[in-house]
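HOLO CASE FILE
Compound: adenosine-5'-triphosphate
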Amino acid sequence: MSENQNPQTQTDTATTGTDQPLTTTTGESVEQTRDEWREYEFEGESKMTVENLDVYYGDDHALKDVSMEIPEQSVTALIGPSGCGKSTYLRCLNRMNDRISSARIDGTVRFDGQDIYQDGVNLVELRKRVGMVFQSPNPFPKSIRQNIAYGPEKHGDLDTGLLARLLNRSDEEERDRLVERCLRDAALWDEVNDRLDDNALGLSGGQQQRLCIARCLSVDPEIILMDEPASALDPIATAKIEDLIEDLSEEYTVVIVTHNMQQAARISDQTAVFLTGGELVEYGETDQVFEDPNSERVEDYISGKFG
Ligand SMILES: Nc1ncnc2c1ncn2[C@@H]1O[C@H](COP(=O)(O)OP(=O)(O)OP(=O)(O)O)[C@@H](O)[C@H]1O
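Model generated. Tokens follow.
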């Protein structure tokens, strides 16, 4: 499917697979479990609303009837065993799955109330506002400064022209202010401010990942999607990323996929548990999900009985 096509128009005839109630291994109905957590009410506004989302890769039904609200300015963790659809779900939130030719998507994803799968959505703008940080740090093979300035320059955000002149600032000063702000917000400024023109590939893995977060911030996102952002890092670098995520959630809405349940428990406000087969089995406040889950399957998963 090309990025310019509306996936919904292609999937109108897709079956949802929800005609029959799904039964868990413990005999508990998934629908009964969902009834409990669908009542989950969080404080504040919903930034994203996902309704009845199904994703198929060819004949493989990877996500089944997922509905979930993502509250603004908080951390939402997505956990579950390998292959349960966490990354697939994350990629639906900024239409990265459009790049996978076999992917078909059915359902609704609203960002600030707007359906991101409707015709005419500008994908470049969407992905600026809903940024993404990947598992392995992937800085450009350019200087630290250029890594941050590249996006805003490409999108024309730094070409402030009249305003910059009125403020008696050159474009270069504007750029450097932006670079400093993003590096500070990504907790990297103190470590790199004396070598902004060095190649970013010379940074440590943890520094590279924080640079990628700074790069994501440079285009002014509202939501930051993170797909296992610390899985390639050592414990010290991981702790820095975790602190950073908590700080970022004061201003941004963060959605993070993690295999590390302790990490989810430490940094997230709410946790969604996906289990094998692409079902969202439980969603709620993190403390409640970890300490008193509604679903026996989730309890078994969290206590390490499987997964
Ligand atoms: N590009 C793709 N093409 C075909 N099938 C895919 C593709 N990406 C994922 N899948 C399939 O979709 C299902 C969900 O995969 P996904 O990567 O979303 O799970 P995950 O929970 O993120 O796994 P992991 O924790 O191992 O990264 C799996 O069966 C996987 O094989």
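CASE NOTES: DSSP finds 13 helices and ten strands in the chain. The CA atoms of residues 85 and 110 lie 19 Å apart.
CLOSED: yes
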